[in-house]
Write a structure and sequence with these properties.
The protein has 233 residues and is mainly β. It has one domain. It has no helices and 16 strands. A hairpin with a 4-residue loop joins β13 and β14.
């Protein structure tokens, strides 16, 4: 089965300077695996996600812009076909703003939990953010690239060859952006690029998700699969 990614709803951006940010509102199908990414400025909080009475798990947390801003990735499995509002919480260290983008997946390994083959992170301040995965990607798997930086110009991000932009959103005070690019199959290399001419500090996260039949059939103690990989908080 091929991996299919569907945007839950358009990304939501807010600079309300608070500890709780509501994300996109959408209705998944029962059994969909949900993945939500957050780029939050002015916070290094541990961060949690809630919404839809689902069990949300943090896959990774990663600081950029000299540690001033943080990116988060959360996942959950939809248990009912009802409207949900994934909501990011940064109690203890209010964010000056946050952008939340969410998608739902079918065709992944297991489907009742997230099986990750590998992740990668990078920071910088040059044009065209890039990362390198530890090993070359499996051509059958899905690859997701998340980029964030300190600018708010519209449509500044462009996906690399064979990648698709699922979402891009910005806010103004302070200036911030987030983009989600992905490829559901066909990737074979380990170096990944997101085109962006701006040179403000940026952060980038790459995630390779096992397609059905490609990954472990039994979870390890961390629930990630015997061959899974995870960037810890």
């Amino acid at each position: 089965m091929a991996v299919v990614r569907t945007r839950l709803a358009a990304a939501v951006a807010s600079s309300s300077n608070t500890t709780s940010y509501a994300g996109p509102v959408g209705t998944p199908a029962v059994g969909d695996l949900l993945l939500c990414v957050v780029a939050a400025t002015g916070t290094t909080a541990a961060g949690t996600m809630s919404g839809g009475s689902l069990t949300w798990t943090q896959l990774t947390r990663f600081s950029y812009n000299s540690g001033a801003d943080t990116m988060y990735v959360f996942w959950a499995v939809a248990t009912a076909a009802v409207s949900i509002t994934p909501t990011f919480d940064c109690t203890g260290d209010a964010a000056t703003g946050a952008i939340i983008a969410c998608a739902r997946f079918t065709g992944l390994e297991g489907q009742n939990q997230l099986y990750v083959r590998q992740t990668a992170t990078a920071t910088g301040s040059t044009a065209n953010p890039s990362i390198a995965f530890p090993v070359a990607c499996n051509t059958n798997n899905a690859v997701i690239l998340i980029g964030a930086n300190g600018t708010n110009s519209a449509t500044q991000w462009s996906p690399g060859t064979s990648y698709t932009e699922m979402d891009e959103a910005t806010y103004t005070t302070p200036a911030a952006s987030l983009a989600w690019h992905d490829r559901m199959s066909g990737e074979t290399g380990n170096g990944k690029l997101m085109t962006n001419a701006n040179t403000t500090p940026w952060g980038m996260i790459g995630i390779e998700l096992y397609a059905a039949g490609q990954g472990p059939s039994t979870a390890d103690a961390q629930g990630m699969g015997f061959f899974g990989g995870m960037s810890g908080p």
